[in-house]
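[READ THE FOLD]
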Amino acid sequence: MLRNLFQGGSKSATAPATIDVKTLKQRLDQGENLLLVDVRSGEEYTYDGRIAGSRLLPLPMLANRIEELPKDQPIICVCRSGNRSGVACEQLSRKGFTNVTNLSGGMIAWARAGFPMDRG
């Protein structure tokens, strides 16, 4: 039982796909049609900075508003460090979304790379 717990248990508990900030920036610069879903709080989104064009959908509200998201478009989930966005990816996958990716390192990694952020 403990082995299953630490090894992820069943095959349905697969980790979401990830993308690093450099690759995401390249894809955005190429004009790829990606939906960036930022699952941080409204305060984090406004005052800590966000990726231009991202959409705020805080993690606690995701389950109630999941029908607002398109299933036919690649979705990149974003948070501060990559943890909450990983949870969001798992929730979306359980609801039938098949093209969901977690931004590895989140906004911390984005800022450290020196990429532009919108504020306010």
User: Anything to note?
Assistant: The CA atoms of residues 38 and 75 lie 10 Å apart.
